[in-house]
Specification:
single chain; mainly beta; 4-stranded antiparallel sheet; 1 helix; 49% strand; globular
Length: 111
């Protein structure tokens, strides 16, 4: 596992490749995970009484990266998601439509 993402979480999040990072939106109802295959998956989640995470509905699979995704992050308001990775790209996503709003490719190293 990379960055503390254990195999059980990887299986729950249904990535084909190793999960590299996961982030939960501040309100705790959405999780974004990224994998070494360049994909970002977004899920609707709920928490049961014991605090365990229960994945409910897949919201989107986001694909723009051609290499591993090293980080994902929700904006403070939750209206944007960024992903960055080994392909030197930073992608800005809308959390309303799950489409890319911008791709920044001027990075000089993996981010």
């Amino acid at each position: 596992p990379v960055l503390g993402v254990d195999a059980s979480v990887q299986k729950i999040l249904r990535h084909n490749e190793e999960v590299t990072i996961e982030r939960v939106l501040e309100r705790g109802k959405t999780i974004a995970s990224a994998a070494s295959d360049g994909s970002v998956k977004v899920w609707d989640i709920s928490r049961v009484a014991n605090g365990e995470m229960k994945i409910r509905t897949p919201l989107a699979t986001l694909k723009k990266h051609t290499s591993y995704v090293s980080d994902v992050s929700f904006s403070h308001l939750g209206d944007l998601l960024t992903s960055s990775g080994g392909d030197f790209l930073v992608v800005l996503w809308s959390t309303k439509t799950w489409t890319s709003l911008a791709v920044f490719n001027e990075c000089l190293a993996p981010v």
